[in-house]
Amino acid sequence: MFSLDNKKIFVAGETGIVGRAIIRALKAQNVKILPATHAALDLTHQTQTYDWLKTHQPDIIIMAAGKVGGIGANASDQAGFLHENLAMAQNVIHGAYQAGVGRLLYLGSSCIYPKNAPQPLTEEALLTGVLEPTNEGYALAKIAGLKLCEYYNQQYGLDYISVMPTNLYGPYDHFDPHKSHVIPALILKIHQAKINNNPVVTLWGTGKPLREFLYVDDLAQALVHVLKDYNAPLTINIGSGIEVTIHDLALMLKQIIGYEGAIEFDSSKPDGTMRKVLDCSKINALGWNAKTPLGEGLSQTYQWFLDNIA
Ligand code: GFB
Question: Domain containing 123 — which CATH number?
């Protein structure tokens, strides 16, 4: 067991959906959180990142910063997703090593696993096949970061752990009709259809792909668990086991939002991978399981949207 007492923690990406949830969870722990907004520290900037880490000397880094987005954003800007995420991973991981930071949690994504790997996806499936083309750039950057952690551990005896969360959602998500992940995109589209009395709302793809969803505060609890109880320098998956088709997800949101029109799908838009559910035997063996049922998490996210965005 690793004590977090009085540790100085740097949450890279503190204003994002994941960073904010981690900070909410860490507030219940006796830790000191080192603040660094994007305006004060640009993680794509190498010397700025190295200098900041040397000056502030965190005991632990949680690397939750990244350029993120849904299938539309990923597919239309593979260069940006690869370049920016690779730069941030390199700067933070090498900067951590140079600054003498012993413990680091690096967050990846379930899209790092091959498109056709057996489901549920185990950590061992990494690099056993081709990637899903719609998010290849993002996945390659995340794989490079994971491998950097692995090699730095091997060469320098560090404790840099890669965690691979499944599709996340919750408060402070990014709501955009073209760029966001499916849950915020559907909330926005179905809510607007209701407000504008549109009889039909059109969503992307066939509606048939399955996605596993994890409420972001459940992820944050899992990360606290990993920080305290996990000391093997190996990748660990974090999922909920809650899988739905995009069609069923749309029906759940239609009911939560109170939209009475019809849902239709535009199959000229991409489906992406047909299924990606994580095998979570490792994290479950540490005593962590996701707590938030999908309906409850979606209702809370919609309420947050109503209070802050709509
Ligand atoms: O969350 P999402 O964009 O990303 O979900 P991925 C995409 C799925 O939802 C596809 C369907 O099957 C889409 O066809 N969908 C239906 C929609 N309507 C919409 C819509 O209006 N917006 C969006 N976004 N999707 C992402 C990766 O993959 O998963 C990222 O691109 C990252 O790199 C993330 O790994 C976790 O699950 O397909």
Answer: 3.40.50.720
